[in-house]
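Memo subject: From amino acid sequence to discrete backbone structure tokens
Action wanted: Derive the backbone structure tokens from the amino acid sequence.
How to read it: Take the token row as a discrete description of the fold.
Attached in line: The record itself begins immediately under this heading.
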Amino acid sequence: MRTFYKILGSLLIAVTIASCETEVVIGDGFDNRPTLNEILSNQELWYVDLNNTQGNPDIPFMTKAFTVSFDFGTLYANNNLVGVGSAGAGLGLDVGSYQILNNQVSILHDIDGLHDFTVVVLNYNRIKMIDMHRGTVYYLDGYNRNNFDYDQLFYDNIQYFLQEYKAWEKVYTSNVGALNNFDQENYLQFTPGFNGDEFKSSTDRTGLNYSSLFWDYTGEYWIKDEVPGSINKHLTMDYDFIGNDFFDLYVINDNTIELYHSASGTTYEFKGRGYIQLKNTAGKSRLIDASRVIEKEK
């Protein structure tokens, strides 16, 4: 995970601070008012604020995206936290195309097909997209890459980062620490569940392909901040037969995590195997507890 910064060299329109209660009137290209295309492309990233979604948010490419970008007819999305900030120069993957007519945008997603939205511009940094067929309302906040906090996005949504590999293989166990049951766990898997996020564990020997693993146990897991907004995280895994196991979770890089087992004092390292690129309809959905993004302080 790298933080990508690039100062926007020029703006398509001059942005002035507008009241949150005042909608921006869209122009048609023949007057002095900005067009919808100018407003959408002026912001390099649009953060999908799922916390404020109204209606049934059942469009997969919207519920899986942290950000979307409208770039000269190409739709980009940051669906993954692995590589966020560097993938696509900060914009993410090319996931489809779009066309704009007056106050409407038609998105042709590579996987999810055609979806039509009416766009209401609340101000130059916030819009709402109304699904013309389902009536679902999505709110999006606009940023440029130089004031978007990719690190905050990553750490606020770290539970999804764990779900972006098909398995995590144990590659290191410290000599310091008391013997405990978790010493036998050589693989972990984190997945979204119906009532909560789930993990699986396996005692298979290391060095195996993730597709051949036998998962011995399935339970729920939770991640909490050490203090609100902290990058230091506490991971709890629910083992029915031994109770909860508690860890301090640290991210070393995009495919390596460190788990410190607080009860035994043992440190483990796991590497991600089988990266899942979330362009299709498989994998995580941010329908619950969509996280905030904090603009960097000047």
Observations:
- The CA atoms of residues 88 and 94 lie 8 Å apart.
- The first strand starts at residue 45 and ends at 54.
